[in-house]
Design brief:
By secondary structure, the protein is an alpha+beta fold. It is built from nine helices and 21 strands. It is elongated, with a radius of gyration of 25 Å.
Amino acid sequence: MAEVSIENVTKVYPGDVVAIKDADLVVEDEEFLVLVGPSGCGKSTTLRMIAGLEEITEGIIRIGDRIVNDVPPKDRDIAMVFQNYALYPHMSVYKNMAFGLKLRGFPKDEIDERVREAARILGIGHLLDRKPKALSGGQRQRVAVGRAIVRKPAAFLFDEPLSNLDAKLRVEMRAELARLHNRLQTTTIYVTHDQTEAMTLGDRIVLLDEGLIQQVGGPLELYDHPVNMFVAGFIGTPPMNFMEGRLESENGALYFTREGVKVKLPQELASRLEGAGAGDVVFGIRPEDIEVRELGTIAEDENVVQSRVNVVEPMGDEMIVYLAAGGVDFIGKLDSHARVEVGDAPEMLFDAARAHIFDRETGANISLARPAQVA
């Protein structure tokens, strides 16, 4: 087990295509770190550079105390699990899992012990004599993970390992991987485009976009305190609602306003915006922070907006409602038994204490609590 770090790492492909720019990141020993972001953001490139499968253009990569920039993949003491499993079709499960150890000259008895222990941990002991073609997708994934486990590496690298599985099996395998990490406590770097996987698996999340690290933090930190509109819109299902407008002061209070919408900001939020002044901003509110009721049922409140229901999606345990108000489309997340139908014109109440205010030009979250001043 080891700490993994990248320092000022840049990757430029031919044609001056920048995949990663000036990335700095430390993965703590025994940590489960998830790299997440949309397609083309640079997450798999970052993983492949750590593995040694891609050369870096600039910077330093360390695994443990070693700089591994020029170290071949086989000598980096890492084990990688790929999206397509990369199993040898002509070999049995046992031989697939043992192959890497055999190449490294491990004694036969130790190979057998490691393979059978990994198979027991993953619940595939009864599959050791089968060929990959006789396995389900989930079983093949377990074999690929087992092949990594037997190596007992300093770090595991996972490149979208669940993307080929159906939804139910992905949920099951997420739980398997979480249990496995809790048991083995091996440093793990996991790449996915699925923010649900990132939120449920990661001790910390690294969110990338266009080759740049946007934010690093725990799942709830990114959810509750996004540093910009990209993070706020990417993390969370359904995504955060945004609407453009202005900040305006009135009778000692601060309001967000636009045509048909006027939201009084609570004092705590207003104090964090002190110095922002009046001007164009973007108001962000998550679907679960919108209350939707029949007309006249919400007690008189300055933050009530009349809306119209366009789409209703019953989800079993909840209801997703698409609304329009003030020329903007909103998504609300309601109780599954809420009485809302398409064409209704309910009142919408924002929980302004949970709102975020973003700079309209830069997208930065200007409503985040400012760090304490150091004397």
